Amino acid sequence: MSDAPVQTHALDYRAILQNTTSRTDAFLRDFIASRDGVPALLRESIEYSLFGPGKRVRPALAILSAQAVGGTPEAALPAAAALELIHCFSLVHDDLPSMDNDDLRRGRPTNHKVYGDAVAILAGDAMNTLAFELLAESLSDPALAVKLSLELARATGPAGMIGGQILDTCYPQLKHVDSQAADLASLQRIHRLKTGALIRAACRMGGISAQADAWHLQILDELGQAVGLVFQIVDDLLDVTSSDAHLGKKTGKDADIGKLTYPVLLGVEQTNAELNRQQKLAEQALARLGPAAEPLSLVVHALARRDK
Amino acid sequence: MSDAPVQTHALDYRAILQNTTSRTDAFLRDFIASRDGVPALLRESIEYSLFGPGKRVRPALAILSAQAVGGTPEAALPAAAALELIHCFSLVHDDLPSMDNDDLRRGRPTNHKVYGDAVAILAGDAMNTLAFELLAESLSDPALAVKLSLELARATGPAGMIGGQILDTCYPQLKHVDSQAADLASLQRIHRLKTGALIRAACRMGGISAQADAWHLQILDELGQAVGLVFQIVDDLLDVTSSDAHLGKKTGKDADIGKLTYPVLLGVEQTNAELNRQQKLAEQALARLGPAAEPLSLVVHALARRDK
What we know:
Number of helices of chain A: 14
CATH topology of chain A: Farnesyl Diphosphate Synthase
CATH superfamily of chain A: Farnesyl Diphosphate Synthase
Order of helices and strands of chain A: HHHHEEHHHHHHHHHH
Oligomer: homodimer
Largest sheet of chain A: 2 strands, antiparallel
CATH class of chain A: Mainly Alpha
């Protein structure tokens, strides 16, 4: 980590995130507004979750990864917007009563609390599909559209985010068959899939959007893997150490429901050690990318601190 | 309708459907088997719904539409397989307790009755995403992959099948605001979206896979619209006139829950008149396609009779 004052960093990364967020939101609003024939209730439910408060982490990673390898922010906007559609779809479904059963998300009632389970399921389904519609219609180069679509589908699907969610949701029921060693392997697999796959895809899709060569794409891949783990470990730690009001969602419930997390399994101290290890790996990747990765570096550091 | 004996038609269309089904299933089995890293429970749930008994109507329409405009069956297999993934995803989600709440589908317990709601939701999500993964990786021509992906996403998404499902699911609650005239418009909109969009896309995607020109694509479009309505009207009629055992699912429940259907709104006689009108439109489109559309024509006729 840099020795520069936190305040300077805090200002910088805030301006950067504000910029990537407003570009992504403008792109998403244009895209959603231009869909004809969407039933009003479905549109409202989609917009409730898509344009609610959110940090837009994945779009920022995609846009700044593109910049880090010499691309423009504009080139990465379709990837950024598609990633956010997938992320929002996953939040809406993960919050459902049969999954994590959350009433609160980003300080507001969850989608199914407002619109009911049926509409929430369908709004999530719609955002899943819309991500691929967006990629298919927003890129002038078909070969690039196919590459991005394949990358996003694999990161989202049964061997990616959705696969991670099933392991996470079903873990409490499956727990009795696992030993402690299997627990750590399970935990790592869940994290790699559930949060990691889409974060990694964000970095890779930014690079692909900027037509990065294989060498740069490999660095972005390694960065994405480390950042994904950092992000999830910080999230696990916050569930143990924060209050509901600070996070805008219910805390302390992971342990309550027997969910597998780093602090539950390793304790807070060892969890912090793993966090530092992953942060160093991210640091090394960022250093290899050079000066064009400075904005990306600031945002990655802020994510690791989970600053407000 | 042709004057040829039903028996001859029945034999022909069965052989044709058996052929398109076995090609599609082989393609889908290869595709699913080659996905690495899918959690076992999720794979089992996906395969339960994807490879259960099913008529494979959409794959047949795609493959035979390709043939009708001079293409090979092989060219249409990615489209056929992707369409079936989307169709199966929609069945799994539509059957959920918060939607149609069906316990029985194609004579077997529905996915959520076997695996629980969480797994069923995630299996549906996975099949939705897998359809786009399949299109992105199965076609050597990126421009064709993008066209098919766009066509499928639009037919599936909030202005297509998913939009139709929300109207259908929420209709009983919204009913009081609609007059009789609005009812018919609502019914037509629901049918056009919920079943029609994907049937129409099947015919169009077959044509696109075969690199059909605009004139042929327009005919396939008109055929698809008529077939979609025929299919839905026959389904509505069967709910009124059939038994549970014959259909392999619960019947007579549409009227029970105040669902909007043609027989509920127009009565059986007028519903049959509308069915005949749509069948004639399909007939006209098939005639314009010429002799290469003969297998497609046999299957369309069989669908209209809903033969076993």
